[in-house]
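Weekly sync, protein design subgroup
Attendees: M.S., D.O., the rotation student, P.L. (late)

Item 1: inverse folding check
M.S. brought a backbone from last month's batch and wanted to see whether the design step gives back something sensible before we order anything. D.O. pointed out we never logged the input encoding, so this time it goes straight into the notes. Structure tokens as presented (190 positions):
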């Protein structure tokens, strides 16, 4: 059991010292991706609102349930966009990764103190609970790191694809509205 605890503590320390900082460094280089995600969220929100406004204007017999359905769809899309932007925000990711790792390390250290039994506090069940919680915290941080790495790769691919196939200078979306970069420029001017 001592060897398992030693391996687990070394894994936690390795994640704290190497994996998490590398991922967060890559995330900090991804400021362009955060900007693109914000633009896409704004475009999607405006398109959905425009479609809803057109449907209301064209169809006088539009039921309230249909309008509510569209509003729920708009809220769901907005929540997804906010989650994506949060996944690309370094401050939030630092908390999501390091808090479970540091708690796991503290639980393992507390377990080691209990196992020394110098204070007569050793309880096998408590020790197993501490180890299980530490494993859960480490797994949670590992899942966060994996999701973040996937999001970084996806965003980088999106940016590279846009560089390869740039949009037209005065492009319009499907609803006839200017694209996101033009909207941001207009907001800054006005």
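Designed sequence read out in the meeting:
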């Amino acid at each position: 059991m001592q060897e398992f605890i030693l391996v687990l503590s070394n894994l936690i320390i390795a994640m704290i010292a190497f994996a998490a900082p590398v991922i967060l460094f890559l995330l900090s280089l991804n400021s362009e991706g955060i900007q693109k995600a914000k633009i896409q969220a704004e475009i999607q929100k405006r398109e959905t609102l425009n479609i809803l406004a057109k449907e209301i204007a064209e169809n006088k017999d539009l039921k309230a349930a249909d309008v509510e359905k569209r509003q729920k769809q708009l809220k769901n899309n907005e929540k997804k966009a906010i989650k994506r932007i949060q996944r690309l925000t370094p401050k939030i990711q630092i908390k999501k990764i390091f808090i479970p790792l540091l708690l796991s390390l503290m639980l393992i250290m507390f377990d080691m103190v209990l196992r020394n039994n110098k204070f007569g506090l050793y309880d096998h069940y408590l020790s197993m609970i501490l180890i299980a919680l530490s494993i859960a915290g480490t797994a949670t941080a590992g899942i966060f790191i994996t999701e973040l790495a996937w999001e970084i790769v996806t965003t980088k691919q999106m940016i590279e694809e846009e560089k390869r196939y740039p949009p037209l200078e005065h492009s319009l979306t499907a609803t006839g509205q200017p694209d996101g970069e033009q909207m941001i420029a207009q907001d800054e001017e006005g």
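Discussion: Residues 88 and 95 are 13 Å apart (CA to CA). Residues 2-166+174-181 form one domain.
Action: P.L. to compare against the previous round before Friday.
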